Amino acid sequence: MQQKDYKGYRAYQYLEPGVDFKEFKLSKETGLFPAYTIPLTTAQEERARRLFEENVVISLHDHMFVAPENLNEFFEFRRWGRDSMGYEGLSQSGLDCVFDNLMNGTAMITSRAGWKWDDILFDLGMRLCDIAHQDMVVLGLTTEDIRQAKKNRKIAFVPSLEASTMIENELDRLDILYGFGVRCMGIAYSEGNSLGYGLKEKNDGGLTEFGRQAVRRMNKLGIAIDISHSGDKTSLDTIETSDKPIFITHAGARSLWESNRLKPDHIIQACAERGGVIGIEAAPHTTMTKNQPRHNLDSFMEHFEYCANLVGIDHVAFGPDVLFGDHVGIHRVFASALSISAAHGKKNFEEVDYVAGIENPTEAFPNIVRWLITRGYSDEDIAKVIGGNIMRVLEEVWYDPRSMTVGKKDEKARA
């Protein structure tokens, strides 16, 4: 993997713990669970190294923060709104760019319900302040930022939000979030909001009229749209309303495992037909399959192969949705707020303590690439799914200051 320009910075080290902020003992970034590395031959190891060196590697969805060691303190930890990014673990991840979704659904400074405007801005501003005090992670606001990060041995950080709940009925708040650096947003997370319906709603009425206005505004601004947590009708309405390709940043195939958290074939196909990409999800107890009800790297990759066969290799990527800490434990703490029951699905399965092979950001992409190598995928196809497909969509969706337009392609070409 490309060696990153990491000098040992720890989150908020410019401040004095216990004086400037309340200190919590954080989990280990690596070694919390047994390491898992797919073995390769010497020739395959060299090929893996070259693939990381020569291609832009992007996670379409992750949370690069470090959880507190004592999860009984998690609610208090969140109320302080000071997440610590795992810089050391991130430096070893092989990533050149990460769509980091902060902890937006658990931004609970003023409310236990989360998703409040002030709390989201507090979390976002605090993270950007920390990033401004180090030099390995840089803001990824354009595709050129991502390329330059790769060239300079940095990592591009793309601020992302999993829902648009916090904008309420204020369309201009999208402009403000764009000004704060947000470049990817979901429509709804779990509960319905003023835009549309989330995955746990029994009755999905699709995008509201305000939701359609918001989609069009995001198109104009150059914010990529995510439907990972949106209900099925809301997802389809979003795909049809958007002038630009959209992302399913972190999900899998419902055909392989019956869960509202995963997407049915017709939505994956509709997304791909409009040029979009699905990122395969690995958060605990999501991308299991009938063949492999115990969640692990192989069940995760079964979802990848299914989607690639369904819509083509050009429309699949990876959004592991992992973090540093006890992910299963965090899900237990936030079971109601994060709609964990919806993710579990209707089938019986063996609960795991961690997802072997893809538990944290440090091991995720190295094992993904190694898995693809051992299964005989070509360099060209691996390059597409670890970043190339995402870059193609961003070139069309994001605002490009060099051309003074949103995207580089003529919108009529997609009509």
From TrEMBL:
GO terms for biological process: proteolysis. This is Diguanylate cyclase. Coiled coil: none annotated. SUPFAM superfamilies: Metallo-dependent hydrolases. Pfam families: Peptidase_M19. GO terms for molecular function: metallodipeptidase activity. PROSITE patterns: RENAL_DIPEPTIDASE_2.
